[in-house]
Design brief:
This protein has one domain: 3-Layer(aba) Sandwich (Rossmann fold). It is 41% helix and 19% strand. It is built from 8 helices and 10 strands. The strands form 2 sheets. An 8-stranded mixed sheet has the order 1-9-10-8-5-2-3-4, sandwiched between helices. A hairpin with a 2-residue loop joins strand 6 and strand 7. Helix 2 packs across helix 6 and helix 4 crosses helix 5.
Length: 223
């Protein structure tokens, strides 16, 4: 049964593997939260340095970090940390879990949101290894933090955040800030068109309403 995302929190920590991962699934919701006065913080496991074909990691990483900083600012996120683990080689190991735990202790959120960890987004659409490994590391680390909510982004999740046209437009603009990445990813489609198509896929419900959807992985323990 579809259930609204909880509202009794002040700070959310978004833990994802790469620059742009937040923009593909949740930035419309993030925009709603920040305009309502909530704080949202992004932590990226990598700098996305392996993400632009034909570009060396030393050149690509700083470009993708800069794109992510601009993108986050569009939806009201002004703290973005990069953990500098190797892009394309993430593992659910002790060093990764320690870095996630440090981020939790540093930022003190009430809500944690990470990337979808399922094997497939849809039939024939496999998930990325980095997404699965990092999301699993977040899930495992969170076992020691039962005072926090944990959610994953999900295209068909039953936890939802209703978003407005303003939030949708902010999400499109945020994804479009990943300009060099998107231009190489699909050189035949204008960046803004790619961004709008992706945001439409992640927010447009069958009845025409707009919402971001999530999976609840851990409910906050009650005292």
């Amino acid at each position: 049964m579809a259930t609204p995302f909880p509202t009794d929190w002040r700070t959310a920590l978004v833990l994802v593997p790469h620059p742009d991962d937040a923009e593909y699934g949740m930035s419309a919701a993030v925009n709603r939260w920040t305009r309502e006065g909530k704080a949202v913080i992004y932590v990226m496991a990598t700098s996305g340095e392996a993400g632009i074909a034909g570009m060396e990691p030393e050149e690509c990483g700083p470009i993708r970090e800069a794109e992510q900083l601009r993108s986050a600012a569009v939806v009201g996120v002004h703290t973005v940390d990069f953990l500098h683990f190797p892009d394309g080689k993430l593992t659910n190991d002790a060093s990764m879990r320690a870095a996630i735990d440090h981020a939790l202790e540093r930022h003190q959120p009430e809500v944690v949101i990470t990337i979808f960890t399922g094997e497939q987004y849809a039939p024939g659409v496999p998930n990325q290894s980095d997404h699965i490994m990092f999301g699993q590391a977040v899930n495992e680390t969170m076992k020691a933090h039962d005072d926090l909510w944990l959610f994953e982004t999900a295209p068909s999740g039953e936890i939802f955040v209703d978003v407005t046209d303003e939030d949708v437009e902010a999400a499109v603009a945020a994804l479009a800030e990943h300009e060099q990445y998107l231009r190489v990813l699909d050189p035949d489609t204008p960046v803004i068109e790619q961004a709008r198509n992706q945001v439409n896929m992640s927010t447009l419900a069958a009845d025409g309403s707009r919402r971001s959807t999530f999976i609840l992985r851990r409910e906050r323990a009650t005292i």
